[in-house]
Write a structure and sequence with these properties.
The chain is built from 19 helices and 23 strands. The protein is α/β, with parallel strands linked by helices.
Length: 618
């Protein structure tokens, strides 16, 4: 029988039961490989309950540094009888199945084209531990120990991680090290090792950091000057506010007095949280909320108020599957339309699309600047894949002396000098009016903030011309925003082509790998990564330069494609949908197959394989 042979290039998936303590053990495994200098890209796939349902943890090990999902599993660690059949079916031919062999399974539960490694994990743990909880928790560490021998993962790297995790807790440290070596010793005595897939020390990680997007966005808010956060817990965004509080407690407490220079409020619901943020923004504070699609739905009336009253607000939307409560622990890019046009009436909002935690940090700070400068709500559009999964990325950087862009705020001195103040008056031709902050001047610069129509001086009015002036000025401001938002990134093909592809956000790492595979098969595409809406002029130019453009996104209804058609008045026939929406992150194989099948519908040959330094050996 053939077997997969690969060094530093494979995908391993753990199938566990939620609440069994497996997630921390699986993360430990991934981090140990990272400590050996080999890039990893882990993804935690978990259910929306506390415990009992299936959960998976997928780790891609790739010295080439590909951080997107590849598709296909080379080794399955099958610890959940409920999902056994589906887990075994996922394995590539020649792959490896590791399982708890304490209870024998009938032959029909296995496949003839895979390699089976059985280890009596339950029996081992029952012999050593008497406490039921310890038996369960340490079983996870035992299989990590077994895998460290089978795959040649350095045990010293794992023990170093234990030492950091349990510093000052020597009893816990010793018991975890014991469980690790229980697994290692059993494999050395009873099983053939190593397998065909192994890990070798390398130096491909460099200076990159390993962090999740929610933590990165929270730190970006701290550096970007946010002092107020109001939120209501909702998966997968809750850890944004939690991380913000953690960072503020270290960076925003006066060392002399102990006074907190920040305010974090867990509101009674999403409506209250956005209301608090609008109030804080009106008062001059940099404020944000973090939520997901259902929260945005509840916030829309306040979002409309902030848009029309022109109040700075930053909203971090960590997208998940929908509609309704949908799949709260699965990823999608399905809030694009609802956020772009959030609220009733004619609205258009600024959206930022970070591709990784590094850009989550940068774009969070940028969103706060843009909200102030444009006096409007700004959405940071991440998703569960970026937000809750740790990923390698470039280190965060902050320019020394960088200030905050507060936009057009009129001072007391300017008011005292007699400068004309019309709160909603376009005096500079960019659609952005001047504002004052409460208390700026004792008698000048005050105005009514209202959601109803007014004239340029904030005086109540239901006159048609006043309404038209306001909403057309808001459009002019939106056009101004196109030059201020993060600009798209062009990745040109190796040779001239009339084919293009547009992508954004968490789709990026898989898209980059797919482009390499397509080019190797003779399919060249110019690629444009969108980073913001409104679309800068370069997006329209890219579309004009290509006869056919694929739009790759993770939702059912091609929402980004619809936005391009609606805003740029593009012929829909020129934009080809590539849609992935089953809740799992998109894979390079999926993108490659979809584009190849569209361009070569009559070809008998399969889509080009994702390049891998591997071979099938007898």
């Amino acid at each position: 029988m053939n077997r997969i042979e690969a060094v530093n290039d494979f995908v391993i998936k753990f199938a566990n039961v939620n609440g069994s303590g497996s997630a921390s053990a699986n993360e430990l495994f991934a981090k140990a490989i990272l400590r050996m200098g080999v890039p990893v890209s882990p993804r935690n796939i978990f259910p929306s309950n506390i415990q009992g349902l299936p959960t998976w943890y997928e780790v891609r090990v790739t010295e080439q540094g590909h951080l997107g999902r590849r598709g296909g599993i080379d080794m399955m660690v099958a610890m959940n009888p409920q999902t056994w059949d589906a887990d075994v079916a996922e394995l590539e031919p020649g792959g490896y199945l590791f399982y708890d062999s304490t209870r024998p399974l009938p032959p029909e539960k296995f496949r003839p084209d895979i390699h089976v490694i059985g280890m009596p994990l339950t029996e081992i743990c029952n012999a050593v531990y008497s406490d039921p909880r310890q038996r369960q928790l340490f079983k996870n560490i035992v299989y990590v120990g077994a895998l460290s021998v089978l795959l040649e993962v350095d045990a010293a790297a794992i023990e170093q991680l234990f030492g950091e995790q349990y510093k000052g807790k020597e009893k816990l440290l010793a018991s975890n090290v014991q469980a690790l070596h229980l697994g290692r010793d059993f494999v050395k005595e009873h099983l053939p090792f190593p397998l065909g897939i192994t890990v070798r020390r390398s130096d491909k990680v460099g200076d990159r950091i390993f962090v999740d997007g929610n933590s990165a966005a929270a730190l970006g808010c701290v550096y970007g000057g946010a002092t107020v956060a109001a939120w209501y817990p909702i998966t997968p965004s809750s850890s944004v506010a939690e991380a913000f509080e953690k960072y503020c407690s270290k960076l925003r407490v006066d060392p002399a007095t102990g006074q907190h220079r920040y305010a974090i409020i867990q509101a009674e619901d999403e409506i209250a949280s956005i209301g608090m943020v609008v109030g804080a923004g009106w008062n001059g504070a940099r404020a944000f909320t973090a939520t997901s699609g259902p929260g945005v739905s509840l916030m829309t009336e306040f979002i409309g108020l902030a848009y029309f009253a022109e109040i700075p607000v930053t909203i971090i939307d960590v997208q998940r599957g929908g509609p309704s409560t949908g799949m709260p622990t699965r990823t999608q890019q399905a809030d694009i339309i609802s956020c772009a046009y959030a609220s009733h009436g004619d609205t258009k909002h600024v959206l930022l699309f970070p591709e990784d935690p590094h850009e989550c940090f940068e774009h969070a700070a940028a969103a706060l600047d843009l909200a102030d400068r444009l006096q409007t709500p700004v959405f940071l559009m991440t998703d569960l894949d970026i937000g809750m999964n740790q990923r390698l990325c470039q280190p965060f950087a902050w320019e020394e002396g960088r200030g905050y862009d507060r936009g057009k705020v009129m001072s007391a001195q300017e008011l005292e000098a007699g400068r004309d103040f019309g709160r909603y008056k376009d005096v500079d031709g960019d659609g952005i009016p001047w504002r004052t902050l409460p208390g700026t001047h004792p008698t000048k610069g005050s105005y009514f903030t209202r959601g109803t129509t007014r004239d340029a001086y904030a005086r109540y009015s239901e006159r048609g011309p006043d309404y038209i002036y306001n909403v057309e000025r808001l459009l002019k401001k939106f056009a101004t925003a196109a030059a201020l938002v993060p600009q798209p990134v062009l990745r040109p093909a190796a040779r001239p082509t009339r084919l293009g592809v547009i992508y954004f956000g968490s789709t990026s790492p898989s898209m980059h790998e797919a482009l390499e595979a397509l080019a190797a098969d003779g399919i060249e595409l110019d690629a444009l990564r969108l980073r913001a809406f409104p679309f800068p002029a370069s997006v329209a130019q890219f579309l004009a330069d290509h006869d056919k453009v694929f739009v790759v996104e993770q939702n059912r209804d091609a929402q980004m494609r619809s936005l391009l058609v609606n805003e740029l008045e593009i012929d829909p026939k020129r934009l080809v949908k590539v849609l992935h929406f089953d809740g799992t992150p998109i894979t390079a194989r999926f993108i490659t197959r979809a584009i190849t099948q569209h361009l070569r519908p009559d070809s008998a040959s399969p889509a080009p394989a994702i390049p891998q330094p591997r071979k099938q050996a007898a």
